[in-house]
Amino acid sequence: xxxxxxxxxxxxxxxxxxxxxxxxxxxxxxxxxxxxxxxxxxxxxxxxxxxxxxxxxxxxxxxxxxxxxxxxxxxxxxxxxxxxxxxxxxxxxxxxxxxxxxxxxxxxxxxxxxxxxxxxxxxxxxxxxxxxxxxxxxxxxxxxxxxxxxxxxxxxxxxxxxxxxxxxxxxxxxxxxxxxxxxxxxxxxxxxxxxxxxxxxxxxxxxxxxxxxxxxxxxxxxxxxxxxxxxxxxxxxxxxxxxxxxxxxxxxxxxxxxxxxxxxxxxxxxxxxxxxxxxxxxxxxxxxxxxxxxxxxxxxxxxxxxxxxxxxxxxxxxxxxxxxxxxxxxxxxxxxxxxxxxxxxxxxxxxxxxxxxxxxxxxxxxxxxxxxxxxxxxxxxxxxxxxxxxxxxxxxxxxxxxxxxxxxxxxxxxxxxxxxxxxxxxxxxxxxxxxxxxxxxxxxxxxxxxxxxxxxxxxxxxxxxxxxxxxxxxxxxxxxxxxxxxxxxxxxxxxxxxxxxxxxxxxxxxxxxxxxxxxxxxxxxxxxxxxxxxxxxxxxxxxxxxxxxxxxxxxxxxxxxxxxxxxxxxxxxxxxxxxxxxxxxxxxxxxxxxxxxxxxxxxxxxxxxxxxxxxxxxxxx
Length: 621
Description:
The protein is 30% helix and 34% strand. It is an alpha+beta fold. It has a domain at 1-109. The chain has a 20-stranded mixed β-sheet. A two-stranded antiparallel ribbon has the order 1-2. Strand 11 (415-421) and strand 12 (427-438) form a beta hairpin. The longest helix is centred in the middle third of the chain and has 26 residues, at 386-411.
């Protein structure tokens, strides 16, 4: 016979199993582990009743209870009978119990995995979102330069920035005489002190020909053109501007004669000053904030969710693709996108943007500013109030959007796609077909994109779009190859468009040496396999503190015509860095343009004319 506990062979005479020490021969014992009892319950669920124990008087206790198969000590702890097991069989029952538990755990784990497994649709949607989103991907620009941090610094911290470009060479007749001539611009801004300043200059022969210095701070505007006047022009925009302009002995009456609305102008200047103050304090609403608009769209519009729900995705065949330099088998998914789901997506998205209150308010404020500027110039805003004009504009725009969606509804058709994912769930490729109908002409559309990977999903890829109708084709091919490691960052893109008997396109190449910061960027425009023109840029990033300090020495910016080879080259610099020190007002004798008398204005005019003539003489004109 077999032991009902460990299923080992035992003699029929034994009372205790020599292998697992289990008691043998009790009628109410449970069946072997894992087998069901007579009522379908597992063995561990069937209580075992011990024989009724006698009390001290030799009588049977009336309060006997169900206990385990093991005896109990006085403390209530179970004691398993200890019979000496045979050699080689010691502890075998324990391992059987552990094995059964492990199987149960694995079963539970497998069930949990199956419950959490993504459906084909979820896999495809996740793959597309990961491939075309920067989140979770390596960005060489961020790792090397810290572009997002630099952009944030531009909007919130005290900085100085600028550029300079001058002519360094040319093959064009008469242009080379302007060598070392060009433009220069520098700007300083301090949100913390609500001050800004800039200097814009025209360079001739390596020297400043004319430059304009400007400063704003403490609600005062200072402007200087040192080559034309020794004065620093002062324009006070603080409270009371309208009254000061009306009391002006020369400027006020002149503005009224020209039809300027002084009150409207003063109100506009005060509003601009207030916006600068709010910006410096980190407050105020920036008009037409596209990032905030898209965030509202993601949170408040269900168009994307409904579009994804309408997708039909089924598991398909496998196919091999090159990903991250290796050929691998990728799982295919047959995906169907209905025309109705695309139209509904466009309708709901357009409705959101047309009904967004913040966007409407920004538009009304823009119209309000236009009306104020018209009033300043003595012109009427004859389109009604800004609110009325906004309503009319939005109504016209809504009608145009509806017409466009109707055209798309009539011309578009369903899209059938094959999507391929790697074992990790990354998007490897997708291809599809659809048709477009225009005035009875049916155009077949085929497209294909292979993401060959790299440090980010779009670093290496190739794409194709083919439009065909009645045997004629228009084909566009895009090929991109790039690399990124500790020494170099490269990016090469080519675009070829073949339209019946014509072809055109272009190439873009860039190389950045991480060690010394040297770089070269070039873009070529092609037509019928001939180069139409080239723009190239070479230089060095000679100062770089990620996200804080960025200085580029431009060795050559070259613009070259393709056929005759005529060219122009420029050189210069570009920089962004933290501001050192405070922004100082322009020094010099001030000329208050509001309080100045007519005679003072005449004297200023004569000074400017005289200095202007000297400037022209220095140019030989």
